[in-house]
Write a structure and sequence with these properties.
Order of helices and strands: HHHHHHH
Largest sheet: none
Number of domains: 2
Strand content: under 5%
Number of helices: 7
Radius of gyration: 19 Å
CATH architecture of the largest domain: Orthogonal Bundle
Distance between the termini: 38 Å
CATH class of the largest domain: Mainly Alpha
CATH topology of the largest domain: Protein Yjbj, Chain: A
Oligomer: single chain
CATH superfamily of the largest domain: YjbJ
Length: 119
């Protein structure tokens, strides 16, 4: 599990954390903000667990959610449209460029970067 991705998409992901550790308040989840160490500390505090027990629970949670990817519905299509508009190419060529880029950059998340404006 990539905690940088989790932190960047915390609003989407915190529901999974809340489902696992239901005693955490919304305020505590806001403070955690996708930081693993902060999550561990809050679990220790709220549940009275040792650091080792909290870390063991987080490791199991990470294993169950290791393939987490944020929902980026529409971003790929939006990117394709922007590429077509800016470079004046067909949809097929724009989509091919996106596929090549994704293949080279497997950890890239479209939601992490704003799309450029057409000049």
């Amino acid at each position: 599990m990539n905690w940088d991705i989790v932190a960047g998409n915390w609003k989407q992901f915190k529901g999974k954390v809340k489902a696992q550790w239901g005693k955490l308040t919304d305020e505590q989840l806001t403070v955690i903000a996708g930081k693993r160490a902060e999550l561990s500390g809050r679990i220790q505090e709220v549940y009275g667990f040792t650091r080792d027990k909290a870390d063991t629970q987080i490791k199991r949670f990470e294993k169950r959610n290791r393939d987490y990817q944020p929902v980026i519905a529409g971003k790929r299509a939006e990117l394709s449209d922007k590429i077509q508009e800016i470079y004046g190419i067909t949809q097929e060529k724009a989509d091919a460029q996106i596929r090549r880029f994704e293949k080279r950059n497997k950890d890239y998340q479209l939601s992490d970067y704003p799309l450029p404006n057409a000049s």
